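#struct-help
A.M.: can someone run this one for me? Single chain, 209 residues.
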Amino acid sequence: MTQTIVIFGGSGFIGRKVCQKALEHSYHVISISRGGQPKTHKEWMDHPNMTWKSYDVLEDTSWQKDLLDVDYCLNLIGIFFESASQTYDDMIVNTNHLISQWAKEKQIPYLFLSAKLGPIGYIKAKKQAEQEALTRGSDITIIRSGLVVDDNWGLKKRQGQIIQFGYQFPLFKCLLSQVYPVPVDKLANMIISCLKTAKGDSRLIDLTK
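D.P.: on it. Structure tokens below:
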């Protein structure tokens, strides 16, 4: 029987890769984001097991009634820099609160993507979301990642190369180890692996170590 994953933030940079990998592993995938299906079209996006839904998670809670028979819940929503319309509290802390609570009520394993380094407000929000998620009980997975890079995305590739170069020098090695580049393929595969090995316990996985 095909299992269903709901991915909040599935249309984003990391979310798209996780959707693609999940389809390769024969999951039915539901992506929830403000924009719905990404504007940049790829063939895999039309896969019969791929469903794109458009919701503002905080403003429109009808998604909670729309999602039936879900086996796993992934929260990949996040912004690196906040703005007046998208704050860290809303996009990280409050969305985590709503989604993790819903997953707990439905008794669905919950995965939250965190981070090790970034703007002070960003990391503070991620830590707060981590702590709340872990209080939800069992079936919780937290993944802390460094800078996520993609060879097909020029800017992300160059950022990763700069960090790898600086990592060679002892003066910068300690700091840069917190953001050492993680290929988006590796991260997506790790997330899928976490789904397959879920045993009902709480886990914190640090990809920078």
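A.M.: thanks! The beta strands are 4-8, 28-33, 50-54, 72-75, 110-115, 140-145, 148-149, 182-183, 202-206.
D.P.: also worth noting: Helices lie at 13-24, 63-66, 88-106, 120-134, 154-166, 170-176, 184-196.
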